[in-house]
């Protein structure tokens, strides 16, 4: 299976998407956790801010303003949908995997260009359930990854 991702072909991204979906389904079916307290806090934060309350004035929370704005927009679009948080988290995870692997290939970090770092990163994202759903950690790491891409 790993030899499939050793070739530097952009169509291997479809295999990475399938791998990410398979990993997500396995973790969701066999290791499903109930809604965690932070996830419920983010949902309620988005709900309260969409009702017209102000962050840090009416709603006392230590969530950053960008994350609070994203959660407010999510609540306005989808309500308290756990599936929306899951799906958007997976989209953001795929973007991070794609960008990181593209950066490694563009700057020829390894002797042989392949999509194996993308597979390793997809597996590492599933070690913590904070990185499987949309969270401030995942949003913040996206901007850190974009900045790190310019560091090379």
Structural description of this entry:
20% of the residues are buried. By secondary structure, the chain is mainly α. The two termini are 30 Å apart. It has one domain. The protein is built from six helices and no strands. 64% of the residues lie in helices and 0% in strands. The protein has helices at residues 12-30, 37-50, 65-78, 82-106, 116-125, 136-151.
Rg over CA atoms, rounded to whole Å, is: 17 Å
Major sheet details: none
- How many helices does DSSP assign? 6
Question: Any low-confidence stretches, pLDDT <50, length ≥5?
Answer: none
Q: What is the helix content?
A: 55-70%
Question: Which helices and strands, and how do they pair?
Answer:
Elements: H1 12-30, H2 37-50, H3 65-78, H4 82-106, H5 116-125, H6 136-151
Helix pairs in contact: 1-5, 2-3, 4-5, 4-6
């Amino acid at each position: 299976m790993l030899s499939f991702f050793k070739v530097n072909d952009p169509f291997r991204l479809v295999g990475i998407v399938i791998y990410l979906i398979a990993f997500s389904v396995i973790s969701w079916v066999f290791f499903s956790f109930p809604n965690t307290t932070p996830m419920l806090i983010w949902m309620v934060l988005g709900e309260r801010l969409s009702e017209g309350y102000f962050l840090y004035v009416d709603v006392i929370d230590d969530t950053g303003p960008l994350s609070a704005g994203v959660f407010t927009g999510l609540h306005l679009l989808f309500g308290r949908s756990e599936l929306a948080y899951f799906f958007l988290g997976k989209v953001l995870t795929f973007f991070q995997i794609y960008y990181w692997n593209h950066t490694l290939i563009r700057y020829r970090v390894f002797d042989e260009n392949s999509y194996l770092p993308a597979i390793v990163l997809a597996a590492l994202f599933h070690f913590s359930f904070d990185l499987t759903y949309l969270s401030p950690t995942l949003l913040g790491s996206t901007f850190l990854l974009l900045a790190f891409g310019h560091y090379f």
